[in-house]
Amino acid sequence: MTAVLRPGLVGEELVDLTRRLGEPARDLVILAEGNTSEMIDDDRIVVKASGSSMRDAQPEAFVCVDLAPLVELLRDPDADQARLTAELTAGEADGREVRASIETLVHVAVRAVAPVRYVAHTHPTDVVALLSSTNAEQAFAEPVYTDELMTLGRPLYVPYAVPGMNLGRVFLERLEAYQHAHGELPSLVLLGNHGIVAISETAAGAESISLMAVKSARVRSGAHAFGGLAPLTGTEHYFDRPDFASRRAELAGKGE
Ligand SMILES: [Zn+2]
After folding, report:
1. What is the predicted pLDDT for the residue at 256?
2. Within a 13 Å sphere around the CA of 48, how many CA atoms are in the beta-carbon half?
3. Which neighbouring-strand residues pair with 36?
4. What distances in angstroms separate CA 16 from CA 93, 96, 153, one per listed residue?
5. Residue 68 pLDDT > 50
6. Domains, in order of start, for the chain
7. CA–CA gap between residue 103 and residue 36 (Å, rounded)
8. 195 CA distance to ligand 1 centroid (A)?
9. Cα of 256 to ligand 1 centre, how many Å?
10. If you placed Cys at 200, which of 86, 110, 186, 206 could pair as Cys (CB 3.0 to 4.6 Å)?
11. Residues 195-201: what's their mean pLDDT?
12. Ligand 1 centre from 169 Cα, in Å?
């Protein structure tokens, strides 16, 4: 079976990260929105189960899935939603069927490109507002303050696709193109009309990226309300500066 219930494999750090991102005051998710995952070895991730809330996360609310069959599914043009659902079903607990999140393929796609430890997907109201606007694709195209540039790097924009097979495919395609262009994964992926994906080697990094994305959205909304946005210019060379590069690596949890 591709998906199984293995609460013993769910790390405390992942559960804590999930709960922190689910805190109502942060407004990143409500109800059963959002999901997190951790890569636990070369072949598997644990990912939040469908229908569970992030704020009340428990080890029992995660499902362990094998990456290889899901990467294969993602790359199979004939794969359909029914096959995905079957692959994500992990059995029953307390008389209810437990299934990995419908958005599991987003988490799988990241690991199809590189073995990153943490992925956190949320729907922050402030960010979704910009990503649902007519200028969604351009909303984060240019940095507007230095800390944002440091924490978020160059965000990747992915246009809206229906969660499940469609989103998984579009997401993987854009992620691979980004990796090809920049030689690394983005820290932040913006999903049009949907939400964000934070990618980091550490739980603290995934949390920082998520929170900075919200701040960045608020700064943009404020600037637009106050006459328009004045982005930073000439920032490309920042990425070549050793101090900037090492701080970026630290935030991503990659060390020097
Ligand atoms: Zn989502």
Report:
1. 44
2. 29
3. 120
4. 22, 25, 25
5. yes
6. 3-252 (3.40.225.10)
7. 10
8. 6
9. 32
10. 206
11. 98
12. 15
Mean pLDDT of 155-184: 97
pLDDT score, position 254? 64
Task: For residue 176, report the phi and psi dihedrals to the nearest 5 degrees.
Answer: -65, -40
Listed residues: CB within 5 A of ion ligand 1: 195
Query: 161: which DSSP letter?
Result: -
Structure tokens at 45: 């991730």
| CA 121 to centroid of ligand 1, rounded, Å | 6
CA 241 – ligand 1 centroid, Å: 35
Residue 194 CA to ligand 1 centre (angstroms): 6
- Give distance in angstroms: CA of 181 to centre of ligand 1: 26
**pTM metric for this prediction:** 0.96
From 35-44, 152-161, 237-246, the region with the lowest mean pLDDT: 237-246
Token pair of 101 as six digits: 């999140």
Instruction: Report how far ligand 1's centroid is from the alpha carbon of 103 (Å).
Output: 7
Interval between CA 22 and ligand 1 midpoint (Å): 13
